[in-house]
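Side project, low priority. Logging it here so it doesn't get lost.
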Amino acid sequence: MDNSTEEKFDFANWGLSKTWQFRFEFFAENGLPKLKPTAQYKENFKALSFGQRITLNCNFWAAFFGPFYFLFLGMWRKAIALVLFLFAIKVVSIVCGANVGIASSVYAAFSMTTANTAYYLHRVKKSKSFNIFEGLF
């Protein structure tokens, strides 16, 4: 008898694109790509092709459109948090005398790498959090 509380989802009937289905199925089977991923996640991630790894970890729409893409996906709480995060990065870069372009690049990279897990948590786990770091720890 299986006592696990994990739910099994059929993402094919969710109206998702093939790319999102791939991401959601991988996350459902292996967990999220945390800072310290599980052994199962590492093993199955290494078995993917280079293109599949990029698809799983990166979302180029989020890199280019940032909080607008999060709004498009219905994650308005995380969009607000991203705007505040961008503001904080720019303030710190101005105070430190760093190039603001570097701060924008960091922000784009952060948006690109967190969008997939944030959307998974939003759709599957019904997350209502403002925490943009949710799922990383």
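Brief comment: The first helix runs from residue 18 to 30.
Revisit when time allows.
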